[in-house]
Amino acid sequence: MSMSRERGARERLVVIGGDAAGMSAASQARRMRGPDELEIVAFERGRFTSYSACGIPYWVGGAVGGRDELIARSPEEHRARGIDLRMRTEVTRIDVAGRRVRARDLESGAESWTSYDRLVIATGARPVRPELPGIDATGVHGVQTLGDGEALLDTLDRTPGRRAVVVGAGYIGVEMAEALIRRGYGVTVVDRGREPMSTLDPDMGRLVREAMEGLGVTVAGGSEVTKILAGDDGRVRAVATSDAEYPADVVVLGIGVRPETALAREAGLPLGAHGGLLTDRAMRVRGHEDVWAGGDCVEVLDLVSGQYRYVPLGTHANKHGQIIGTNAGGGYATFPGVVGTAVSKVCDLEIARTGLREKDAHRVGLRFEAVTVESTSRAGYYPGAAPMTVKMLAEHRTGRLLGVQIVGREGAAKRVDVAAVALTAGLTVERMTSLDLGYAPPFSPVWDPVLVAARKAAAKVRATTSA
Amino acid sequence: MSMSRERGARERLVVIGGDAAGMSAASQARRMRGPDELEIVAFERGRFTSYSACGIPYWVGGAVGGRDELIARSPEEHRARGIDLRMRTEVTRIDVAGRRVRARDLESGAESWTSYDRLVIATGARPVRPELPGIDATGVHGVQTLGDGEALLDTLDRTPGRRAVVVGAGYIGVEMAEALIRRGYGVTVVDRGREPMSTLDPDMGRLVREAMEGLGVTVAGGSEVTKILAGDDGRVRAVATSDAEYPADVVVLGIGVRPETALAREAGLPLGAHGGLLTDRAMRVRGHEDVWAGGDCVEVLDLVSGQYRYVPLGTHANKHGQIIGTNAGGGYATFPGVVGTAVSKVCDLEIARTGLREKDAHRVGLRFEAVTVESTSRAGYYPGAAPMTVKMLAEHRTGRLLGVQIVGREGAAKRVDVAAVALTAGLTVERMTSLDLGYAPPFSPVWDPVLVAARKAAAKVRATTSA
């Protein structure tokens, strides 16, 4: 690492963070500009690049064979494409005025400055780790990084017991519940919310809870964890809430993540209400022409509510990286925003949502009609037709689609994509009733479940509008 | 049946045709208006109402247990809802000026007039039955009606042989190929087109052919059937084309259907270039305030090409019926048109299309960029990730999506719905690259296959636009 460098025709792009957003940006910038035009230096404090954190529950559960299957591109592969990748090197300061970053080699401890012409901040997220008594007991694991996955697997392989407690009933929590079921554990999921999956309305969350209970999971809703109890050997033995104690040989924390923006804050870069960096449509940090940010460290515009949200998902991170790389490489691309789509599963239960929940709509002052319908994934007479429940919110009077939630079995979750596109396009539920969706008995009832919901929502909008 | 009736407060709605469009219209009109306000008389020449013709291949193939499972609502059920349903009664004339229809009781032969205030024409389609030597041999079957299905099953149960020839390699043809494979037949599919599934571009049809060949089907493309050969017993024994002869113990005709509009033509109602009735957006027959038409006897506006097409699909028929019933019942609803979505499968091969093929685009004067990509249904590392090929057409310069075709395995077909909604909304492929589609490893790669195609298409549009 050089303290300074000659100014010349060749510019330098510095990337902080070697995962989805950062390395997608680096790779795309490299596609736009060859090494003669643009030097690309990327810093990653960990041991891995470009891996699928979303895949960790499936690796832990055994559906995915090994850690390396989750790695989309290794450091060596990135280097072979002309990216000067510095692994185990942590950026400790961003000097925006001086256009340079300070980084520490975590092996040697050596620190130095690297100047940049263009900077990409892709520092990701850090898991929420509540300050609970006993949180550091042996056998308490997060599942955000590949290292976390390795540590958890090591515990599972060595733990004699068979009881697991998952703290948090969001996506990570329910996916980890599946993973632990698959590994033969008796699983308890503890969550503060009354129903699991608080990204759904409680009436839909109830369906998730009932299905999880049907899988043998104990779902302890409305439970605040007060402490984690360890034995004399320092190993976890139970999780205590205000009103119960759940024996545990292993504890998985799946409470969620926050944007990792300490560096950005220290550098005086603009942060939003959720602690994420604020960017413009081109993913430039606001007010900074040559600084971009993307992935789990930024807030994104929710196109339905018109407000900024924090939505740490790999699919957004990849898109951000692509857009940043294009712009940092001298091209033009924008990220219009999200509509809040997410899909997940617990064993054969599929869960999906997009757009606004009831409380989101209330919060932004949107009045709505809500309907819920039951339908099936295939024609009712076709083998394997699986039930699903679709909830749909439409704006009062205008009938504009506001959100969809789906809980069902095979074939349920990805149906939410139709609603995601409809939200993007601002379609009304009345217009949706005539959508030309694919129909054949093995794939859908003659009225696709999303259309059944749209019909009911449209009827309700009509009825309340004429009143 | 009365020759005339008293004029009073109660109006009479007459429906011609007791299947999807007609009975959906009748049922919805009944929901809108009670029997005191609206009398509803429906004529059906066959023995069944409201059945799923699309389900016949699965019944023949054994996936669906019995005929009655395909019947959504029986004559008795319709009558119980206050619809005066006359089965085995064929309408032989429509007297538009006199506001009456003439019908024949097919059992007794008796004919009489029934007057109407409002009329719904839902006469459906008739199968194409080429005038070939030998076409009437025993063992040659269509598969349009439940009666056809029964007759075919009877032949299959009684036929000692094991060789089947399917004439036509469209949806019906490929679905019947699957059904016959499941019944243990050696199957040959003969089609005039070079590749099967002419609703796809030939490069995508080739993938279907290769997959069908992989299933052991002989696909004889570019073959015109010249005659059907029968033995001395009158039973089919082979199908002859211009250059080959295929032994056959049973022959299934899956060549397609045409609108059944002889009655409408005789009544002077407006027909389009494809022989279907022409309606306005409210599904009213053009120029006729109190006459509606829907289902397989009408042409529909293709929203992508701006031209009228003939698209006989049960899903449209149901939508038409719903809209007609609302309007005929005094409400208001419209059918904006179709984008040309269709999904099908042959065993585990899934096939989907929406929008324009290359030749459709040429025909309407649209210049386009076409791209094809390979992707998978799930994250590459997730078990069951199945390959799929996505072809995408975007308009030159504007980048507006024009069409998508998908051939793949599990999880491929219904992805076309995203494109169907994007076509409806007029999205560009550039905008599509940022669509917020559901992502989790069991459901999609981090870039959904449709987004992978959109990225490639957007890049091509950009490259050719800047040139």
TrEMBL record, chains A, B:
Transmembrane segments: none
Alphabetized SUPFAM superfamilies for the sequence: FAD/NAD(P)-binding domain, FAD/NAD-linked reductases, dimerisation (C-terminal) domain
Matches recorded under InterPro entries: FAD-bd_OxRdtase, FAD/NAD-bd_sf, FAD/NAD-binding_dom, FAD/NAD-linked_Rdtase_dimer_sf, Pyr_nucl-diS_OxRdtase_dimer
All copies of domain Pyridine nucleotide-disulphide oxidoreductase dimerisation, residue ranges: 344-446
Keywords: FAD, Flavoprotein, Oxidoreductase, Redox-active center
Acyltransferase found in the keyword field: no
Source domain of life: Bacteria
Coiled coil: none
Domain FAD/NAD(P)-binding: 12-304
Cofactor: FAD
Matching Pfam families: Pyr_redox_2 (PF07992), Pyr_redox_dim (PF02852)
Similarity annotation: Belongs to the class-III pyridine nucleotide-disulfide oxidoreductase family.
Protein's name according to its UniProt entry: FAD-dependent oxidoreductase
Taxon lineage: Bacteria, Bacillati, Actinomycetota, Actinomycetes, Kitasatosporales
